[in-house]
Design goal:
Shape: flat
Radius of gyration: 15 Å
Order of helices and strands: EHHEH
Structural class: mainly alpha
Number of strands: 2
Strand content: under 5%
Distance between the termini: 24 Å
Largest sheet: 2 strands, parallel
Strand order of the largest sheet: 1-2
Number of helices: 3
């Protein structure tokens, strides 16, 4: 799976519409192999991004958990620490 797609579920504050769409865009780019589609494929590409965005938003809204919400800043700090250790 594409490393640029981040977990969006169970965070405080919740994922924004822009974050969900960006994730959908990365997913469609990965599936299609296009970073930017040709004009001939632009409409199909955008429709796919819209459909994946809709499905992702529905998924995020329907998921249920008893786990406490995660803090975005704390998770980002953990990721930076892992990256520093991995790429030191």
């Amino acid at each position: 799976m594409c490393r640029n797609i981040k977990t969006l579920y169970n965070f405080e504050p919740p994922a924004t519409d822009e974050e969900v769409r960006a994730s959908a865009l990365q997913f469609v780019r990965k599936l299609s192999g296009f970073n930017k589609p040709s004009r001939a494929n632009a409409a199909v590409f955008e429709r796919a991004v819209d459909e994946v965005t809709f499905a992702a938003e529905r998924l995020l809204s329907d998921l249920v958990t008893a786990a406490p919400k995660r803090n975005r800043e704390a998770e980002a700090a953990k990721a930076r620490a892992r990256a520093a250790q991995r790429f030191a």
